[in-house]
Amino acid sequence: MDDRLARYAEIVGRQEIEELRALADRLSGRTLQNINSTAVGGGVAEILTRMIPLLRELGVNATWDVIKGDQAFFDVTKAFHNALHGKRERITPEMFEVYRATLTENLRSMSFCGDVIILHDPQPAALVEKKREIGGHWVWRCHIDVSAPQPDVWEFLKPYIEQHDAAIFSMPEFAQQLSIPQYLVAPSIDPLGEKNRELEPEQVHGVLEKYGLDPERPVLIQVSRFDRLKDPLGVIAAYRLVRKRHSCQLVLAGGGASDDPEGEQVLREVQEAAAGDPDIHVLLLPPFSDLEINALVRGSTIVFQKSLREGFGLTVTEALWKKKPVIGGAVGGIKRQVLDGITGFLVHSVEGAATRTSQLLADERLRRIMGENGHLHVKQNFLLTRHVKDYMLIMLAMDYPGEHIVYLG
Amino acid sequence: MSGCAPFRFYTERRLVLLTGRKARNLVELLAHMEQVSGSSIFYHTHHQYLAHHFERPVFFNDFASWTGWALQERRLAEQLAAVDIFSFTSVRQIREAIVNVIRRRLEEGGENRSAPPGEEFHFCESRSFVMSTGLEARDVSEFFRKLPEVSNASLFFHFLEARLRLGRPTNDFSQWLADCGYDALARAVDALDPYVMTLDELRNQIVELGRWAGLV
User: What architecture is domain A201-381?
Assistant: First the structure.
């Protein structure tokens, strides 16, 4: 077994890796092309960064391309993103035109090589128009919460989505009335990646020190893009309630993503709200800060993900893997990960987040039990190996349309 | 030892498909239940057995779980959980039995409660991919020795799903044991009700029967 696969086998068991190999053997010689809108920042780019090498190691020819767009295009797709998440956005006919024009330009410049082509999220969805010309199997992978989309944006995208052979969603609630099969596939984290691998205590301490955090006092942290839907101001409000009784520190750490133009403004609002409190640390981390994020979470006592809407919430997965109890908004994929009272607490308000934080700060045993549960929950359900297996099964499923039981021998 | 063919252990991997159908109350649940595929009924009455649970689920059947906690229809939930899936050999029979329980409840009248927003029942179904595990037993004694190595997915395929695949009140293990001439043991394994225990418990009980027969 290759070194890297052997290391995965140490975590998930040899049998699991043998099964991956057996599936990959059935796909040998086929190409899986992934297309999204950013190479850095955000969950999709992170998953692809880790998934492509593993697929290749198994013998599946996986590739990854990124569409090109200017500021106007990413303003439009950010508005689409918010509108699909159910946040009211004013969408004009010109915005639809910007989207169409950018994708037409990409259709001309991009080369398509996949036997199976996965388009991630709404940004590249219109590339499916190429299917008429080159054939192949096309899959739309939706990473966002589309349980209550704004109708004009959904109706605009739906004809593109229905040209695919299948769609993939992260939660049952996100399913739509579509004419194509819809698969349920949870995203994943890579336990061997810089962001999740085990660290030495000195490395963790070093990073806490670098950012002026006191390792003797509890650290609360939310790792997220600076985005209103992640409710960073709500986290600060909850921290202020907790501070009345407990001496603790708060870290709000996030990076920017090249397809998120709204981030800077939200960051300014967060900095204003945090001003004057030396125990609130607002950290705008550059890309490739995975090791520091890993250390910050490992050095924290409790992790927040107080989102108001959420596709899946990989930051939750990462925290649970590091045996941290998570206090999460009861939305989207957070509900699948934070098993209320078992791996953390689900909350619906600033007050709820504050109460649960105080409860956990006062109970070291509860934090430890929840941490162990969370680690096991991720191991069973949300590791990269399972994700890769699901994608390979979807590739195989394309060969057997409509069959509920497929005998692979 | 009789000269039966080796037992080959298979396993299956599943992809979950979303149907886009959702129910907010019992009337909607019933309407969808009459229309969804057999694969969907199978999924919602079986998938909990394959999942890992931190606490033993109150009910293994999704219809019972959802009516109990999202609709607060506790009596109905118990009645749905009491539907004896072990007595059926087809998904059609399972569907009829569950539909009848819900229909009776609706005929009694009473409130048609709605689930809180965000807690609707989402109908799923599954596609399964059956693969050889490469594991095989050449005789009955080896079968019982190797059983502890067999995954839950494999056990599920040979034991729970087999009844519905074969359309007979038996499973792959019992069928093979009978073919090997171990009729009494085959009947004893057949009598285990997998719907009232976890797959780990089921595996232990089968191994225990082998031990009792002096085969382990």
Answer: 3-Layer(aba) Sandwich (3.40)
CB-based burial label for A79 (10 Å; 0-12, 13-18, 19+): buried
Find which of B11, B13, B161 to mutate to test the A interface (most A CBs within 10 Å of its CB).
B13
Q: Which of A14-28, A205-219, A253-267, B67-81 shows the lowest mean pLDDT across its residues?
A: A253-267
Residue appearing with tokens 């039990």: A369
**Residue B12 near residue A404 (C-beta atoms within 8 A):** no
Spatial contact of A326 and A319, defined as CB atoms under 8 Å apart:
yes
Q: Does domain A3-188+383-397 have CATH number 1.10.10.10?
A: no
A19/B131 CB distance under 8 A: yes
Query: For A392, which residue in chain B has the nearest alpha carbon?
Result: B15
ipTM: 0.89
Residue A409 contacts B where some CB pair is shorter than 8 Å:
yes
Query: CA of B184, closest CA in chain A: separation in Å?
Result: 31
* Cβ atoms A136, A117 nearer than 8 A: yes
Q: Which of A82, A71, A127, A43 is CA-nearest to residue A309? A: A82
CATH 3.40.50.2000 domain residues, chain A:
3-188+383-397, 201-381
> Model pTM?
0.90
Give the Cα separation of A221 and A338 in Å (integer). 16
Q: Which residue of A lies nearest to B151 if distances are taken between CA atoms?
A: A15
What are the pLDDT digits (tens) for A357-389?
999 999 999 999 999 999 999 999 999 999 999
Q: Do B127 and A405 touch (CB under 8 A)?
A: yes
Q: Do A397 and B127 touch (CB under 8 A)?
A: yes
Distance between CA A9 and CA A6 in Å, rounded?
5
Q: What is the secondary structure of B140-170 as a DSSP string?
A: HHHHHHHGGGS-HHHHIIIIIHHHHHHTSS-
